[in-house]
Amino acid sequence: MTKTPQALALTLYEKIWNAHVVEQRGDGTAIVFIDRHLVHEVTSPQAFEGLRLAGRKVRRPDLTLAVPDHNLPTTARRDAAGKRIPIADPESAAQLAALEANAPAFGIRYIDAADAMQGIVHVVGPEQGFSLPGTTIVCGDSHTACHGGLGALAFGIGTSEVEHVLASQTLQLKRSKSMEVRVEGEIGPGVTAKDIVLHITGMLGAAGGTGYVIEYTGSAIRALSVEGRLTVSNMAIEHGARAGLIAPDDVTFEYLKGRPMAPKDAAWDAAVAYWRTLATDTGAVYDKVVVIAAADIAPSVTWGTSPEDVLPITGCVPDPMSFTDPAKQVAAQKSLDYMGLHAGMRMVDVEVQNIFIGSCTNSRIEDLRAAAAVLKGRRKAANVKWAIVVPGSGLVKRQAEAEGLDKIFTEAGMEWREPGCSACLGMNPDKVPAGERCASTSNRNFVGRQGPGARTHLLSPAMAAAAAVMGRLADVREMTQ
Amino acid sequence: MKAVGQIAGKAIPFGRKNIDTDIIIPAKWLKTITRTGLGQGAFESLRGDADNLFDDPRYKGAPILIAGDNFGCGSSREHAAWALADLGIEAVIAPSYSDIFAGNAFKNGLLAVELPQEAIDRLMVVAAEASGDGAPISIDLESQSVTTIFQDRFHFEIDPFRKLCLLQGLDEIGLTLDSEAAIAAHEAKMEEEQPWLVPNLS
Ligand code: SF4
Fold it and tell me: Which of B34, B161, B198 has its CB closest to that of A63?
């Protein structure tokens, strides 16, 4: 929709976009300034190599932060004597060594694998106060949208773009369309931020947000903690959106205040004053609006191999022929074959052998508390062979241990690991065996995502805990009442 | 990026349709830390075959690859363009490309020429028959033409912006850096109005 020149009412997205356009080009592309660049070991080596070949420097090392997460094993990083334990896989070790060498060579702040600050890029950024409202944030990882939970315009980029940002601190971009997804009302018991975003993904479809930046609004979103908002925005990419946004408010400011890398004192006040101007103006127009009643959202799980394959836990595996789109019928049948499920089966009858609580979607302290609340005084079922809890960062780990959550997990028969991406993607040693099922708090249930042949069911931390206890997908509401 | 103007030489008459990026470079090569050296893994699954075209002495050093429809479909891995470049390929000629591959090729200075199937058929014959003749096929980006030593001449279309970048050897980064003044002005404004934007990284 085009706006009349008089209508100065702007959306949050337009305000952030406008504040970062360095140069507008005739063909619709703009050079956009990037305020924050997060760098990890997998998508950066060739970018640094490119800089070297072209004889270029990193333009703004002071806006760049490097931390390893994807390849890193989640087992102990130091031995009893405090010595670093080397990584067994030579290729992972080489990628890690490359980042460890490239960061100082280009003057970039590097958080070491054995540092308490280390963690998943998207957990570390907000936690350190590196990610701020109103900023543009990029990283060579598609779930960078996560930082949108703080009101930052954040999105994933490819390796050439990583190099582009390192060299110029900008990107050449075209403006996206804007969509409002408004979730109104109160969510029911047992329903979490993860269920909200799974529900949205099911409704919009995996490509429903393609071409859009989505702003999540409404009373149910406002009521979420920052952790919950990060979870929602994290999965914007799973419904195809370029980025997700949640307007910063007092909850956001409270969360960020005093974080190590955030502004302090008078600078803090100036920052907050600016952030308060960012909210979408009354009368601003989105290109598309979707309204969801919070009361309609149930604790949710996925049944297929696309994140759009979402059902309430009380539901049954759908019949592929029930879809109207013939392409979806074929895809659904393929999904069921891969997942080893058949139409009509109740979701609560699906047995699981593996539990993964972690990933940038759900590995913050609130997530671990939610899982621990269900697991307290209980044990994982005998048929659950492998159950791991992987905190999102060393600081989350420390906090959880201070609260005694680690004891609850280990007493429940689960492993308590070092921070990293872990079983979110089958790139490090944490993999789900072929043909086995995993109740996972991560964000993608693609074929082979958690390892070749692995079968993934996405759900919330509380639901993953319930599945661990029951040895099958289970309705957490039955366990907490 | 080095400028791309004329590419003349032998061409590999590959011609296959729907070559996906998994065929161009299998996933197991993605854990690498360099853009170079990927030529070794390029078309790995096809090169297991002793008389494959890529290791055929007749096409040794060929800078041109002739392929079929929808070249470079599948995953978005930029490694596909890197692998071709490392193999010594400077241009691909095919009827069509996946969007992402075309973008990745462009970003890496690999010329992706689009010609209709009839032209491809003819070029396949020329590439095979004249493989002993030094440079049977020439591509001239300036005039947007592909010519052969047999006087064939095919005109191709290319996005004018991409053409300019390739001709002048302007990679996207180089182009952006041409706007140095605008970037610096933005930085100065940021420092003035929002000095708190620079994080405390110590
Ligand atoms: S946890 Fe998963 S989605 Fe998040 S950064 Fe790591 S690999 Fe990407």
Answer: B198
Cα B153–Cα B20–Cα A213 angle in degrees, nearest 5: 105
Chain B residues at the A interface, defined by Cβ less than 8 Å, are 31-36, 76, 78, 82, 104, 107-108, 161, 171-173, 175-177, 179, 182-183, 185-187, 190, 194-201
pTM as predicted: 0.89
Q: When comparing pLDDT for B160 and A465, which is higher?
A: A465
Summarize the confidence of residues B106-123 as an average pLDDT: 95
Give the count of domains, chain B: 1
Q: Locate B18 and state its tokens.
A: 């729907």
Highest mean pLDDT range out of A25-34, A388-397, B25-34, B38-47? A388-397
pLDDT at A364 over 50: yes
Give the Cα-Cα-Cα angle B3, A46, B55 (nearest 5 degrees). Answer: 70
Q: What is the mean pLDDT of residues B47-69?
A: 94
Q: Looking at CA atoms only, how far is residue B146 from chain A in angstroms?
A: 28
| Residue to substitute in A146, A356, A421 for testing ligand 1 pocket (most ligand atoms within 8 angstroms of CB) | A421
Cα-to-centroid distance, A157 and ligand 1 (Å): 14
CATH number of the domain that residue B66 is part of: 3.20.19.10
Please tell me if residue A268 touches chain B, with a CB cutoff of 8 Å.
Answer: yes
Name the token pair of B84: 């071709």
Residue B103 belongs to domain spanning: 6-170
Would residue B175 count as lying in a domain?
no
Q: What is the pLDDT of residue B2?
A: 78
* B146, part of any domain: yes
Closest partner residue to A22 among B78, B179, B199, by Cβ? B179
> Using a CB-CB distance cutoff of 8 angstroms, which residues of chain A are in contact with residue B3?
none
Q: DSSP string spanning A234-269?
A: HGGGGGT-SEEE----HHHHHHHTT-TTS--HHHHH
B137 domain residue, yes or no: yes
CB A70 less than 6 A from any atom of ligand 1 = yes
- pLDDT for B62 equals 96
Q: Which of A160, A161, A427, A449 to mutate to test binding with chain B, by most B CBs within 10 Å of its CB?
A: A160
**Average pLDDT score over residue span A123-139:** 98
Q: Is the CB of A122 under 6 A from ligand 1?
A: yes
Q: Are A45 and B183 an interchain contact pair (Cβ–Cβ within 8 Å)?
A: no
Q: How confident is the model at residue A391 (pLDDT cuts 50, 70, 90)?
A: very high
Q: Which residue is closest in CA terms to ligand 1's atom 3?
A: A143
pLDDT band at B28 (very low <50, low <70, confident <90, very high): confident
Burial class of residue A251 in the structure, from the number of CB atoms within 10 Å of its CB (0-12 exposed, 13-18 middle, 19+ buried): middle
Is B63 contained in some domain?
Answer: yes
CA–CA distances in Å: residue A434 to residues A116, A350, A456: 33, 17, 11
Question: Treating both helix axes as pointing N-terminal to C-terminal, what angle do B99-107 and B160-168 enclose, rounded to 10 degrees?
Answer: 30
Q: H or E element: which one contains A368?
A: helix A365-375
Instruction: Work out the average pLDDT over A110-120.
Output: 96
Q: Ligand 1, atom 4: nearest CA belongs to which residue? A: A360
A155 Cβ contact list (under 8 Å, min separation 6): A137, A138, A144, A145, A242, A243
Write the ipTM.
Answer: 0.93
Closest CA to A446 of A318, A345, A302: A302
Distance between CA atoms of residues A141 and A424, nearest Å: 13
Question: Does A281 score more than 90 pLDDT?
Answer: yes
pLDDT given at position A1? 47
Nearest residue on chain B to A52, judged by CA atoms? B34
